[in-house]
Amino acid sequence: MTAVARLARNQRGFTLVELLIVIAILGLMMAGLVAVQLQGQTSYLVGAHRVEVQQNTRIALDLIIRELRSAQSVTAIPSATSITFVDENGATVQYELSGTLINRTTGGVTTPLIGGAQTFNLKYFSAFSGVTNTGTTTVIPASVRLVGVQIVTTTEQSVATYSAANQQATMESLVRLRNM
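The structure corresponding to this sequence follows.
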């Protein structure tokens, strides 16, 4: 008889102990793979939410700064979270925080600029010294020469506060109004 024929006739199976050892080894391998998969998924969520938060904040801040720089006049400063001004085309533009949205209103049409905003703070200055990094604040719209803008945002989707995916971004800028 050849070796192949002997192996084919050998009807010996695996013992219960051998099967249990194989199952235990496979279980450990699967647990390791699941742990690696979960860590990768968490890292992806953290990164994606960080990008979302930074991108939203940057887009909003850039648009607000661009429009404020070319503003012809500030017409109203009702609060530290709202500003109304006349843009370079003569249209009245208002930015304000409403809940978690920063809204832009022009021509009577309100458009949400970004969501997930936690704070939108505006400081109005009639004069500012770059040397001492201090300024004279004002509440009179006609005397505003510089505006300090600070935006703090989180993700637009609600994320548990204890989660690593709960990201936050703070960006601020000081805008000198050119056309005044």
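The chain has a mean pLDDT of 89.
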